């Protein structure tokens, strides 16, 4: 019975915790608006999570860190998906133009799809490795979220800075 109570507590904790997080995308958005080069934009990854951890009571706990990092991960994941779709749309248009010209080229859309699929496998393996370094300790959760956030942010920025057919 004690195990069932612990499981119920773990399932309820994220919903309760999510209500008390002091998270906002504002720190990241502000940083990105002043970034004048790609390396400066990469420095924005983690800005909102760090602000959240500072402003949230118990933001320095593994649960607090995980919650803040997960929220910023969602921000970067949304940007990644928007940038990926925009890039795929441009790749498809360019591929169609090249087909119309009778060009014999590597198709951009397929290459982009293959690259993104390989990136997901690489990202997940990299973050699994970062978690493993915690040896099953509680720091593994925040380490995984931090890794996913960082790599997703970097890929979102990469996709957003890639120009096709422009």
Description:
- The chain has 166 residues and is mostly helical.
- It has one domain (22-161).
- Helix content is 78%, strand content 0%.
- The protein is built from seven helices and no strands.
- Helix 4 packs antiparallel against helix 5, helix 5 (62-101) runs parallel beside helix 7 and helix 6 (108-132) packs antiparallel against helix 7 (140-161).
- It is elongated, with a radius of gyration of 20 Å.
- Residues 1-13 have low confidence and may be disordered.
User: Largest beta sheet, briefly?
Assistant: none
The number of helical segments is 7
By secondary-structure content and strand pairing, the structural class works out as mainly alpha
Share of helical residues = over 70%
Distance between the termini: 63 Å
Shape descriptor reads: elongated
Strand content: under 5%
- How many strand elements? 0
Mean pLDDT: 87
Uncertain residue ranges: 1-13
**Helix-strand pattern:** HHHHHHH
Count of distinct structural domains: 1
Cα-atom Rg, whole angstroms? Answer: 20 Å
């Amino acid at each position: 019975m004690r195990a069932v109570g612990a499981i119920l507590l773990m399932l309820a904790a994220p919903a309760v915790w999510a209500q008390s997080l002091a998270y906002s995308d504002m720190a990241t958005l502000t940083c990105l608006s002043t970034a004048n080069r790609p390396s400066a934009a990469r420095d924005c990854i983690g800005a909102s999570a760090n602000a959240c951890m500072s402003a949230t009571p118990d933001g320095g706990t593994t649960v607090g860190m995980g919650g803040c990092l997960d929220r910023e991960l969602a921000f970067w994941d949304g940007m990644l998906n928007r940038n990926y779709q925009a890039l795929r749309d441009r790749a498809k248009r360019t591929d169609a133009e090249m087909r119309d010209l009778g060009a014999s080229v590597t198709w951009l859309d397929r290459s982009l799809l293959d690259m993104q699929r390989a990136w997901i496998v690489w990202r997940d393996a990299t973050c699994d490795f970062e978690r493993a370094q915690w040896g099953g300790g509680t720091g593994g959760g925040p380490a995984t979220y931090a890794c996913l956030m960082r790599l997703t942010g970097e890929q979102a920025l990469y996709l957003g800075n890639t120009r096709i057919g422009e």
